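Bench notes, bay 3.
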Amino acid sequence: MGGVSGDEASRRFLAVFQVGDRCSGIVAEVPRRGGVSVILDGFTERPLGFVGPLDLSWCKFPAATVEVGQRITAEVTAIDLEQGQAWLSMAATENAELWAFLKSLRVGGVLSGRVASIERFGVFVALDDGPDHPVFPGVGFITIPELSWRRFNTASDVVQVGQRVSCEFLQFDTTSGEARLSLRATQPHPFQTFADGATVGQTLQGRVTKLVPFGVFVQVSDGIEGLVHLQELTWAPVEAPEGVVQVGDKITVVITEIDRERRRLVLSRRQASAALE
């Protein structure tokens, strides 16, 4: 009965907290897996708070940030009443101004700033209205896939350091204190632009970019590829596309389907050859 009573007491204690509240306590344990367990003020029976290793700090090596017996202040990020645990973030109180700014952002909002640094894994953006980051050159961050709808080799093919950009806010990355951004979300998708000027039955010139067992992909415009199914390559039956075309070949095709919802373009080479005869 004592265990049940203890569980009920912890649930009642935690039920008064809300996400965003600040709380204080004493570090009870620093597990090997990282993070710390915390005895919260007002409940001394057992540790109810836990700070994950990525929530300890945005600028210090986690193992050096806290010790058993140390008093800490943290912000509640989640509460699990069934498990009797409150998830906390010390980074929220360590960088209060930055945390408050990032929490105020709304998904889908547009943020402007200047490209501060280009890395192999993405682009940092110094936001016009945001505070400085304690570690990174900018609070905003654009991952490589979110830079452009079109194919490119390196991030510097899309943006340059010092360039001004406007991006859509995707999420608050609480583990690193970043505003994850999308540059491509503020730009029209090339397929929709292409589809606006294309019609079924239209003849196009394209370059074969990929061979697959069921057909070939053909680039008909910058960033736009369509599929020519195996049976649409030629009037004569073929078992593999290699017997008809190779990557790099320039061929004439006819549009047979434009699927705006799935951004899919279906082409036919044999219809194009029939039109030429």
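Next record in the batch:
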Amino acid sequence: MSTWLITGCSTGLGRALAEAVLAAGHQAVVTARDAATVQDLADAHPGTALALALDVTDAAQVAESVRAAEERFGAVDVLVNNAGYGYRAAVEEGDDADVQRLFATNFFGAVAMVKAVLPSMRSRRSGAVVNVSSIGAQICPPGSGYYAAVKAALEGMSGSLRKELQPLGIQVVAVEPGGFRTDFAGRSLTGATQPIADYAETVDARRKENDTAHGTQPGDPAKAARAIVEAVESGSAPGLLLLGTDALAAAEGILDARRAELEQWRTLSASTDFED
């Protein structure tokens, strides 16, 4: 039995993951900005679940969530940084305050949680950190520049963190889901308030009011949750775990395109070294 601390459990993948962790016989600290939205999980599993209020942008709540988890269950074995939301806007349209809030939650909040759990994990020479990213970090759709950027930042941090922690017995995995039937494209999606007409052809189809994907995505959150549990329990989770056939197809296409472009420009790229 291990203890998982999961951020953003009120709906979607976070809730599905909490349910999968508890069903597998583990202990779970289930969190949301409003603890009432996850209290039912704790009520259904009074011996193995703890519901806490957690806004990952609040340093005091971050510290308190880890303290409470350790007090109740002894230690946090697995941290899952799932809290976050989507933001769609052409790069030029992005509101500075909105973009700062996006990074505060989706990136800096995850970093704060990592820093809070690592001292105990390092002392025990065991643990796992799961950072939930998105295939958007690779495909970079028009209208999702800021969301792609924040997830790319999370993945870059995860890659370095993995190399830093692997010798200490701690796993780090970034998870890249494709489209899953969650609230991501519904309640959790925000966007530009002042669209620019010149971006109609590239961005308008992805604006929240025009997006028809909500409720039709191919991915099953319950299956994604079980896949994450399986990867962590294996003890040798990959650095990057893709979830969904759409994510796999997109990643394969990107790899092929990048290889072709690399070869096309190889001579110019190689021409910049000093000549001995």
